[in-house]
Structure to design on (416 residues):
């Protein structure tokens, strides 16, 4: 079955964890002992109803404060599709966690409290989802039961968000009115909102088309590991040399002409192996071992691609960076860069501007980025990187900035 990854986002107390709990509960994806545990915890807390948010808010601090702090991943499946959910926090100081959860998502769910309408965090998370090139965005207007299922409230929020979304790069935008607490329009259509003629949230998640979201044109294979069996008596195994990694784009087949970067050596794919045996083609996100017909020098961090369709080889990298550290970005500072399987060092040559995520205004006078801030920077790397524009390939177009002294990830970058 096809796998859909989606992330929830939104402001504090918009009901993200409750929505996920409702999805898991109504699709019968909860074990009996899990249900008994959250029912017991809900009684101990004095809750009138079973608090389904406890299914994802597992940290002690989260349960004590009634908030989400860290990204919680949950898995479930229906007869049509498998799902991985990333429940991300809503507090502004945890925006970096939202970036982590949404970076690999096919779809982002942004929740809005029907009573509060669109707030700063709603705009912030919509902008980040757009920046991260999440292909599909669903705006769920939650807690419709607390506004008497009023159509006018839903329409007002929808129109306001549509106006804001015109400034963003969003390919697919859907609006659904729901009540996560009571289950309206979550798994089943609600009788309380006859004016809504769309589908339930689960039906949309099952049917949204994601197959064409992958880049099947630009063949990209970052080499992660060279496989060379040792101490084999079998002659065939003794001569085995394969290059393992995850396909980052395009389609690879035995017989294809390829080049290896950075050397530029040309060769041909002899075979493609997996744990289950040889395959006739490989595409993202398959993890495979590629064997080449010629003995060329290939090592970790190299890139296998097509002769007439190569990534840009450069040491000057313009990028949008979301800053994830409490220590501000230092212009002229040196950082380690992790790009696909390649690790280099880089200097921040310039901070061109910082973006106000509420107004989308560019502050060209900014000289640093603080925690959760986003800006455009220019990096100069010590060795060439093999990059694509992020909007074309989310894997070869992204990188991490790492503090060399602590080993902490301090920035997430999207190449322009």
């Amino acid at each position: 079955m096809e796998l859909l990854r989606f992330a929830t986002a939104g402001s504090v107390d918009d009901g993200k964890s409750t929505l996920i709990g409702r999805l898991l509960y109504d699709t019968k994806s909860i074990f009996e002992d899990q249900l008994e545990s959250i029912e017991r915890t809900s009684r101990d807390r004095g809750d009138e109803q079973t608090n389904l948010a406890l299914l994802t808010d597992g940290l002690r601090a989260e349960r004590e404060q009634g908030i989400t702090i860290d990204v919680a991943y949950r898995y479930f499946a229906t007869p049509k599709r498998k799902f991985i959910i990333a429940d991300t926090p809503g507090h502004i100081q945890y925006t970096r966690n939202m970036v982590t959860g949404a970076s690999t998502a096919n779809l982002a769910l942004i929740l809005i409290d029907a009573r509060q309408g669109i707030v700063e965090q709603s705009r912030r998370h919509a902008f980040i989802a757009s920046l991260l090139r999440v292909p599909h965005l669903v705006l769920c207007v939650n807690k419709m039961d607390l506004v008497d299922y009023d159509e006018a409230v839903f329409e007002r929020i929808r129109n306001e968000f549509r106006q804001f979304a015109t400034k963003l790069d969003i390919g697919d935008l859907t609006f659904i009115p729901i009540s996560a607490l009571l289950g309206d329009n979550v798994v089943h259509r609600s009788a309380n909102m006859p004016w809504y003629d769309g589908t339930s949230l689960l039906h949309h998640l099952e049917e949204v088309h994601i197959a064409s979201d992958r880049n099947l044109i630009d063949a990209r294979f970052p080499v992660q590991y060279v496989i060379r069996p040792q101490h084999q008596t079998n002659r065939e195994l003794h001569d085995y040399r394969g290059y393992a990694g995850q396909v980052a784009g395009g389609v690879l087949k035995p017989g294809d002409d390829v080049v290896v970067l950075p050397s530029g050596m040309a060769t041909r794919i002899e075979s493609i192996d997996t744990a289950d045996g040889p395959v006739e083609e490989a595409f993202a996100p398959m993890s495979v071992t590629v064997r080449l017909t010629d003995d060329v020098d290939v090592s970790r961090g190299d890139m296998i691609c097509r002769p007439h369709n190569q990534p840009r080889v450069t040491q000057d990298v313009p990028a949008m960076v979301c800053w994830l550290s409490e220590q501000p970005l230092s212009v002229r500072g040196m950082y380690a860069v992790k790009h696909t399987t390649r690790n280099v060092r880089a200097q921040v040559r310039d901070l061109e501007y910082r973006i106000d995520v509420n107004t989308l205004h560019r502050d060209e006078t900014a000289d640093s980025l603080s925690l959760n801030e986003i800006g455009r920077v220019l990096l100069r790397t010590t060795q060439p990187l093999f990059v694509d524009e992020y909007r074309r390939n989310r894997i070869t177009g992204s990188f991490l900035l790492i503090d060399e002294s602590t080993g902490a990830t301090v920035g997430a970058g999207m190449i322009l």
